[in-house]
Design goal:
The protein has helices at residues 6-59, 62-74, 105-112, 153-204, 219-267, 274-306, 318-335, 355-371, 418-423, 430-440; strands at 78-83, 88-91, 117-122, 129-139, 142-152, 314-316, 339-344, 351-353, 377-385, 389-396, 444-450, 454-462. By secondary structure, it is of the alpha+beta class. Helix 4 (153-204) runs parallel beside helix 5 (219-267). It is rod-shaped, with a radius of gyration of 53 Å. It binds adenosine-5'-diphosphate.
Length: 473
């Protein structure tokens, strides 16, 4: 049993708060009730004594004293009557006050002046306490004596005790109810936390398919969702890492196998003509170049992904950058008989970026468009869009990309048609680099494509705010 558990901590806090509130409350209720009951009894005996005093004063019948004595018994009170000298002439059985004994002179004096008496009396034999109310008997201004009514304080204590028991009982009931409620509530809070702790420990051990059940929409629910997302991302990261290493070894092995094979042929003199030898040397040269490119690309990508990539950011004119990239691609497009169409809007706003890296993006996309287009044209459009953005479209009439492959083409080493891409000299890293470069410069890239019709890469960059409605160039 771990006392450090949240269920105990929460439970103890609730119970403590409950006790801090309930105990003083019970104490105050008890005091109020006791005081109220006490004054109520005092008032009752005051009323009784004045009623008896009035009755005796009016009737003057000696039997009346005995009748009142009997009535007092019914009312569970005691009574004694004194004459004008303070001598007890009637007593309903109060021990220590026999008939004929005298009450104090001051009291008789008070009564004769028409005052009431309130006092406490302790029975000398049993020690029983009584509340006493005395009233004068006055007829037509003449003083005839007094009536005393006594109520046992013991009885008051008993009644209050009964109420007190009830109070304690209901307090205890409420306490146990709160205890049960607190226990259930704390379990409801702590159970999902324990489940999440177990799941995270499993994930830490490498069981990345572990998931937590999301049972509520509150903070605990969103914590469970966050843990699940973390596990999913870790799983994806692990899978892509595995895939990446498999790809990289395959990609590096292919050119090395070519180089190794052709170098062996040349070394062993297994060629027939000088022309054949030159052909093999060409292949070795091509594959070495591809290997160098791939290593350079990989190095760049890893620097970008680690955030260690230096960009020389400044306000640049994308139109100039695009014109330079198109000039470089012109020859290759012409060699394939493709038309290159360039349409740049006038007064394009500047974009905050790295000129060289922007050119790398454009050249990469133009190279791809030329590489995967056999006939038709490649058109490039650039304009300012609402929301102060510069839009760039690279559209070709090439082979297109199948719809289900579009989500993956920005991944490292992803190729639509593996053999065709290799034949075109691609490494499968170009688009991954383009995407990283676009995003590092605050832009977004999207692609739309249809097999057999063509492909359109769309790039957006945030542009310089326009001053007084005029674009700066
Ligand atoms: P690669 O070096 O193989 O061209 P990329 O990362 O540049 O690698 O492109 C990934 C894949 O996307 C390519 O293998 C190709 O199949 C596809 N692709 C890229 N650009 C185009 C395009 N303009 N038209 C058709 N397919 C394209």
């Amino acid at each position: 049993m771990r006392w450090n558990r949240i269920v105990f901590k929460l439970g103890a806090t609730f119970i403590l708060i409950f006790l801090v509130v309930l105990l003083p409350l019970g104490f105050v209720i008890d005091k109020i009730f006791f005081g109220f009951y006490f004054s109520q009894v005092q008032e009752d005996i005051d009323q009784l004594s004045s009623r008896y005093a009035d009755a005796i004063a009016q009737s003057k019948n000696p039997m009346m004293v005995h009748m009142i004595g009997m009535m007092a018994e019914f009312s569970h009170v005691y009574l004694y009557i004194v004459d004008e000298k303070g001598k007890i002439i009637a007593n309903s059985g109060i021990p220590g006050l026999p008939e004929g004994s005298l009450i104090s002179k001051e009291e008789v004096g008070k009564l004769s002046r028409g005052h009431s008496i309130r006092k406490e009396y302790v029975d000398p034999f049993y020690g029983t306490q009584f509340l006493v109310s005395g009233k004068p008997i006055i007829t037509k201004g003449a003083f005839y004596g007094g009536v005393y009514v006594l109520s046992s304080i013991e009885a008051i204590h008993q009644s209050v005790q009964r109420v007190r028991y009830m109070l304690i009982l209901s307090g205890m009931g409420a306490f146990f109810l709160a205890l049960g409620f607190t226990f259930v509530l704390s379990r409801k809070l702590s159970d999902p936390l324990i489940a999440m702790e177990r799941a995270t420990r499993q994930i830490a051990k490498g069981k990345l398919d572990t998931r937590v059940k999301v049972t509520s929409g509150d903070e605990l629910g969103s914590l469970a969702e966050a843990i699940n997302d973390l596990a999913k991302n870790l799983q994806r990261y692990r899978d892509t890492r595995k895939e990446f290493f498999a790809n990289i070894s395959h990609e590096l092995r292919t050119p090395i196998t070519y180089i190794e094979g052709y170098a062996k042929i040349l070394r062993d003199g297994l060629y027939e003509s000088e022309e054949e030898k030159k052909q093999y040397l060409d292949i070795i040269h091509q594959e070495s170049k591809r290997l160098i490119r791939m290593i350079e690309d990989l190095f760049e990508l890893s620097k970008m992904e680690e955030g260690k990539f230096d960009l020389h950011l400044e306000w640049i004119d994308l139109a100039e950058v695009m014109e330079s990239a198109v000039r470089k691609a012109h020859l290759r497009a012409n060699a394939k008989g493709l038309e290159l169409e360039l349409d740049i809007e006038e007064d394009l706003p500047f974009v905050y970026g790295d000129g060289l890296r922007m050119e790398q993006i454009f050249i990469n996309l133009l190279d791809n468009a030329i590489r995967y287009t056999e006939q038709g044209k490649i058109s490039i459009k650039m304009w300012r869009e609402e929301g102060n953005r510069v839009m760039i479209h690279f559209e070709d009439t090439g082979i297109g990309i199948p719809e289900h492959e579009i989500p993956y083409i920005f991944e490292r080493f992803y190729r639509v048609e593996k053999s065709r891409s290799r034949a075109h000299g691609g490494t499968g890293l170009g688009l991954a680099i383009v995407k990283q470069l676009v995003e590092l410069q605050g832009g977004e890239i999207r692609v739309f494509s249809e097999v057999g019709k063509g492909t359109c890469f769309q790039i957006m960059f945030p542009a310089e705010p326009i001053k007084s409605g005029e674009a700066k160039r």
